[in-house]
Amino acid sequence: MSLFIQNLITSDLVKIRGKTGFLILCLLTVLVPIRAVIASPVDVEISLYSKATFLAKSGRYKQAAEQYHRLSILFLSSEAKLGRKNMWQYAGLAEALAAIAADKTNSAKAYQYWADSMRYFMTGGTNWDQMKQKLHMRYEAANTQLSTQLQINDFTATIDEHWQNELDTLQAWDEKLNFFSFTSLNLV
Known about the structure:
Layout: H1 3-10, H2 18-38, H3 50-57, H4 61-76, H5 79-82, H6 84-104, H7 109-123, H8 128-152, H9 161-177
Helix pairs in contact: 3-4, 3-9, 4-6, 6-7, 8-9
């Protein structure tokens, strides 16, 4: 049972009594956990962002921003393939990356990309902070997996390519775009 509901039950201000109180309690125990499940980031397929990431890695931020933006448009037209929630969140991430890259070039487009990103994330049932946190956990997991493989395997063993590609992309986002420390555009 959530802390909110426990506090509600034991609160001196709110006394849950009778059928109405019981109904409210039942609704709260059902609805509060559902909200937590709905509002969560999906596992985006990071490799889909590779072309624009290559441009960002090369310091070509204007082209990277344009490519991330085009990618978001592509995602928004792929609901049948991705599903509704994934579509919005994939597009939200693409627009966030476009905004960050455009901000590197002091482009006014960054503000539009950022606003679109926030709207897409909200429509997809998450937000920037949740997506960034989930991707940071994936970054840590990829780093740990590769470190473990390097410690366990000998020199002739191969490295898991999936983990290597994921780590490379997330490292590029962080090193070139300051992805994990980015909070929002400065409205100066």
